[in-house]
Specification:
By secondary structure, the chain is mainly alpha-helical. About 75% of the residues lie in helices and about 0% in strands. The chain has one domain (about 5-125). The chain is built from 6 helices and no strands. Helix 2 (about 30-40) packs antiparallel against helix 3 (about 40-55) and helix 4 packs antiparallel against helix 6 (about 100-125). The protein is globular, with a radius of gyration of 16 Å. The N and C termini lie far apart (about 35 Å).
Length: about 130
Amino acid sequence: MSHHLLDARALHRRARTADAFGDWLRDDPDALVDAADLLGGPDWARRAAGVADALAAGACVLSLLPDLEALRCLLTLELTDDPWSEEAARFLSVHPDDPRADGARLCAEVLERGLAALKALAAADPAQRPEAA
C-alpha cells in the first residue's frame, strides 16, 4: 500500500473525527457548559457558552481553538496544580461517583480527540489553519 494512500486514509479518518466533534459541540452544548461549570465555575461556564453561541451563529470550529484548548486544559485537570485555585477546589469537591464527574470526563475525552483531529487537519492543509479561517 502506497504512502500517499495511507496519508489519505489518515486524513479522511481525522476529517470524520473533526466533523463528529463539531456535530457534538453543536448538538450537545449543555454537556460542555455543565462540565466547565462543574470544574471551573461560572466564568468557565460562560466561556463554554460563548463557544456554543459562536457555533450556533455559524462560527468555524477552527476559529474557536484557543477557547476549546483552554476548556480542554480545564477538563483534563491541567489547571489544578495550584491547590488554592478555584479549579482545584471544585475538582476536590466532586465525588467520583457523581454522574456529573463522568460527564466531565467524557467531555474531556471528546475535546482531546476532536482537538487532535482539528490540529492534524490544520497542519496538513495550511488553508485550514485558524489564522486562515
